[in-house]
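forwarding from the other thread:

> can someone predict this with magnesium ion?

sure thing
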Amino acid sequence: FSPDDVTVLFVLGGPGAGKGTQCARLVSEHGFTHLSAGDLLRAEQERPGSQFGDLIKSYIKDGLIVPMEVTIQLLENTMADTLRKAGSAKGRFLIDGFPRKMDQAHKFEETVCPARMVLFYDCPEAVMEKRLLERGKTSGRADDNAESIRKRFRTFVETSMPVVDYYEREGKVIKIDATASPDKVSAATKKRLTEKLG
Ligand code: UP5
Ligand code: MG
């Protein structure tokens, strides 16, 4: 995809920081297409005949990063499908929960499309843990339990924060305090995005 046609924003933040919640709001109010890497992986895991089902299941339960080829292919296919259905070469995409490892960041930007900006939702672990345990009562997500949450936090600190730091050095990060109410976080996001993107 040409960056002249396609605007990509990466949306990063720890598990439970509120990436999905905020992306949903940006879609309804700003015409972005929301692609959650985690949602695409969970859907692929459920797809009958998928050769990656078992692999995805075990990686997600352990909070580990699925080999990047799988995730990048899912994202690229979904972007292409979206543009095809819209009958347009142009599109704006929020890519939620990706890249969360340096190799994914480089590969995606080389082979799919460079990112214009990175939204980073900053949230302390204690707040994220509380949200995830609460959601776990009803979400049915295999990784919303105390043990998986601990593993997800560890992967985030060791593997995913270096990606945020990398984009920070590139001057692409918009950092937002994610501890306030969804409305407040959403208002802060819109303000900062408008300053940067117009
Ligand atoms: N909530 C949200 N905002 C709130 C607020 N401001 N105040 C109070 N409550 C708030 O929110 C989480 C919960 O908090 C919800 O109940 C919400 O109502 C409440 P949500 O918006 O879902 O947060 P989000 O950051 O999206 O949390 P999520 O659990 O989706 O984050 P993860 O990053 O852990 O999950 P993801 O689906 O992205 O990835 C899951 C796994 O997939 C990874 O661990 C990994 O194993 C795998 N994966 C890969 O291997 N590769 C990838 O590239 C991506 C994922
Ligand atoms: Mg999410």
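The radius of gyration is 16 Å. thats all i got for now
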